[in-house]
Amino acid sequence: MRRLYLQIYLAIVAILVVFAALAGTAWHHGGLAPEDHETLKGAAALIAERLPSGDGPAAQREALRSLASALRLDLSLWGADGQAIAWIGERLPYPGRLAQSGWMPARGGPVGFLRLPDGRWLVARHEHRRFRLGVLAVLSLLAVAVAVGAYPVARRLTRRLERLRAGVEAVGAGHLAARVRVEGRDEVAALATSFNRAADRIEALVGAQRTLLASASHELRSPLARIRVALELMGAERPDLRERVARDIGELDDLIAELLLASRLQAADELDRREEVDLLGLVAEEAARCGAAATGEPAVVHGDARLLRRLVRNLLENAVRHGAPPVEASVRRGGGRVRLRVCDRGPGVPEDERERIFAPFYRPSTRPPSEAGSGLGLALVRQIARGHGGEVLCLARDGGGSCFEVDLLAS
Which long-range contacts (CB under 8 A, 24 or more apart) does 117-120 make? Predict the structure, then answer.
């Protein structure tokens, strides 16, 4: 965006420069209308009477001096053969092969030349150059004034566009309450108004979706509880059926818990709690519960201990359930960051699916349909990691398998 305002500003300055160049060119090389040529012919006839060609050079020089004094011009008189006859003041250039009176550029500024009826040439320029320099100074000051005045105009326009871009990026990053200030009544203001209106609509839709998800998940808890109680009252006549129903209820309960957590993480702008968490100790506890190996060095992160425990548990359970032993977890520090790695020797994840597996309810193509899992575990891992200023990636492991790497900010 900074380049945009520079482009606008430089475009204005370039237009000014081109205009000045064209004006100067027209001033130096501008042609004369036919009626102007007729006027010059009459002037040439009158001046020829003051400069008789039959007299000698001395007489012509004296007549030229008298004419220059009356007109306050530098004058040079040239013969038809290109020989200088006389000049008063600065010697001005010979017009050459030009056929008629007019203007031409010359060193020190443009000169006017007049073709006399007998073929001689009279070349003239104003003897007070300060007039010409004054005009150039005024034009230069005008150019500087336009350039200085154009900068705040271009900057004000692009600054509003920068604020609009910042608002778009904020909404894209998940800050749905972000809005931009509407300034003026032009197209940029109309664009800002449209953006705010669209952001209001998006925030309302997303809020309604989150509310619906949270409410539905909460309401499902009640019938599940009643089913669990009824299951306890069934007795032991069908132990196989009872076990299968209990397992299904447990999966539904886990799914609802994950939906509730996902909804809460989406709705919250920041973590509910922040505390010092010993990540290695937490990983060691969860690894012992899952039968995995834990190694590394002590590392403390600042965050929500419950959410970090959920992150570690989801990664370890995912590796145990869908991978193959040995499942290994490690914690390392470096550069103000803490890196958690959970690796297994399972079939791995295809390269084109390593980003998609973090989407809610996505199942990799290598996972059998019969395997349990809601498809929310890794999505929650990414939400929790980002809520702690980190990120999670799925990487291939040398020798086969997968490694899930979580990068967090050290305390």
Answer: 117/44, 117/45, 117/48, 118/48, 118/53, 118/80, 119/79, 119/80, 120/48, 120/51, 120/53, 120/77, 120/78, 120/79, 120/80, 120/85
> Between β-strands 293-296 and 328-334, what pairing exists: parallel, antiparallel or unpaired?
parallel
Q: Pairing mode, if any, of strands 337-344 and 111-115?
A: unpaired
CA angle 315, 280, 300 (to 5 degrees): 110
Coil, strand or helix at 93: coil
Say whether 395 sits in a helix, a strand or coil.
Answer: strand
How high is the pLDDT of residue 34? 56
Straight-line distance from the first to the last Cα atom of the chain, in angstroms, rounded to the nearest whole number: 35
**Domains, the chain, with CATH or none:** 31-127 (3.30.450), 187-267 (1.10.287.130), 275-409 (3.30.565.10)
* Coil, strand or helix at 359: coil
Q: Say if CB 408 and CB 301 are below 8 A apart.
A: yes
Report the distance separating Cα 249 and Cα 304, nearest Å.
28
Residues 145-163, buried b or exposed e (16+ Cβ, 10 A)? eeeeebeeebbebbebeeb
Strand 300-303 and strand 337-344: the pairing is unpaired
Burial grade of 135 (CB within 10 A; 0-12, 13-18, 19 or more): exposed
The 10s digit of each residue's pLDDT in 364-393 is: 766 655 555 556 788 888 988 888 889 999
201 pLDDT more than 70: yes
pTM of this prediction exceeds 0.90: no
Q: pLDDT by residue (tens digit) across 145-191? A: 766 767 776 677 777 788 888 888 888 777 778 888 888 777 778 88
Assigned token pair, 321: 């359930």
Residues 6+ apart with CB under 8 A from 180: 163, 164, 166, 167, 192, 195, 196
Angle at 280 between CA 276 and CA 286, to 5 degrees: 105
Q: How far is CA 99 from CA 38, 202, 294, in A?
A: 14, 76, 100
Report the distance separating Cα 312 and Cα 329, nearest Å.
9
Which helix (H) or strand (E) segment holds residue 179: the answer is none
